[in-house]
């Protein structure tokens, strides 16, 4: 049997290890991307490595998350990022140029290359045949310095797409179907590679909706081959010279195969409060809505906005609905302005927002209390919209636009035929808001306003941990639960002492005070602990508060690595019954834990209830060293050269 595309790209970039599922490998990234909310820490960490200039083929720093300048904080961060980019040799995408993933897809994606980005939706560029992986900021900083990126060799799932989508059914419904079948933990430790006759019917932006939201499966990444459709896209982006074909060998081997019959899919909706809570639209049609939002890195392409505008053209948004539209990039914004779609949206009563993450991350447009919001985004974890008791439904732009007219969730198939749309042969190219770095940045100063606080450093793993359990959590706790985002908290991303006051803000607002009082503490989690974003602040802030270990049933990939990178020991219950037995407030003792982790098993004594149990870990030898040395930054410095 032939080799699949993913393994070919991994093999091309392999630095160490063997491509055996489950084994640790390291790979070299050709490109990196950061966004502002994770980028400030990433560049502080890059500085701490002491490397004068990035050693990648291309690194880009985007501003898209912290765009509400309600105080000096975000503006300070933007200036820090712009000056750091110039000094260290990084392209800088200015605020207003668009969401990192949409802009990267348009202007920098490169088939067959490997991209590492400090954002969980980095796999968006997988729609253009890149192997694009999300990671914590420190991992990206190391990659910018030329260091390898370590990951567990994933299993490769082949997703066989058969047939063609029916009218009103969208790319979003394909990824919904996978989420419905596999859930938010179904992709952990896996890469999803799409193949089959259905692939050619999907354009690159449609493929990117799918690879983007593959993040919600917990997958390492998702990828499409680079074919003639990809070539068309690169030609339309006027960079055909960057295109090259990539595909699996004939008759490729996959660890698992999933089949999706596109003809049989209908429009679907993800119910509050998890992206895998997917049902056919018929089950929720008629649900009254207060808000409809179109945008985010999942669904803000020229096609997505044109389809929405065509549905709304000549009609009015329901008076019960507040509707927002966010173009994913300045390219999309310019093009809908020129095509007239923007005027149709404005006339319909939609509120037009700047090109940014915006409502997707609670940066404005929080919905009213006790009301439903329908969004084309990728996540609907509780409180993420900025309203504590939110009810966020997720759907395609087609469903969102039709529902905005009626004021309730509406099956678009009841709305006549879909509007005819043409795929543009050329996109509008204007890279003026992307500032290339100067040849030499040595003499440049990096601007640091009062919002940029020094980096807190991790400590080497203690000989013995003795600490109380301060919180016990259910399954699938996301990083939005651990450290929420939103307009109040996000601006503190460069200030760990300040942001740490919001750890578990919605679950237990007293957590930070309790943790500081305890000095050292332990978190107990369920399965898929830390799913969702790449934000390393969900490890960094607990570390700052004195959290020494997490004991969980299983972990999400990026959060597990982030815990190690910041010196928090991630342990696993050897027997899940021990999870049930532990109570909040119990004091746990791990004597000689430094030696125990080397051996792979840690004996934990519950001093409060007077019993012992065993915890394991799935750390590589290298990760054990990282923990013993006090986190990745110390480890990299200790082994420099
Ligand atoms: C998100 O969608 O949750 C974010 C905000 O883009 C995060 C990154 C962050 O927290 O800064 C992500 O997905 O990685
Ligand atoms: Fe931005 Fe939302 Fe995409 Fe995260 S998921 S990068 S917040 S648009």
Description:
The protein has 641 residues and is an alpha/beta fold. 29% of the residues lie in helices and 19% in strands. The protein has 3 domains: 5-264, Aconitase, domain 3; 268-415, Aconitase, domain 3 (2-Layer Sandwich); 465-639, Aconitase, domain 4. It has 21 helices and 27 strands. The strands form 6 sheets. The chain has a 7-stranded mixed β-barrel, surrounded by 4 helices. Strands 7-6-3-4-5-20 form a 6-stranded mixed beta sheet, covered by helices on one side. A hairpin with a 4-residue loop joins strand 26 (601-606) and strand 27 (611-616). Helix 6 packs parallel to helix 7. The relative contact order is 0.12. The structure holds alpha-methylisocitric acid and iron/sulfur cluster. Iron/sulfur cluster binds next to loops.
Brief rundown of the structure:
The chain has 21 helices and 27 strands. The chain has 641 residues and is of the alpha/beta class.
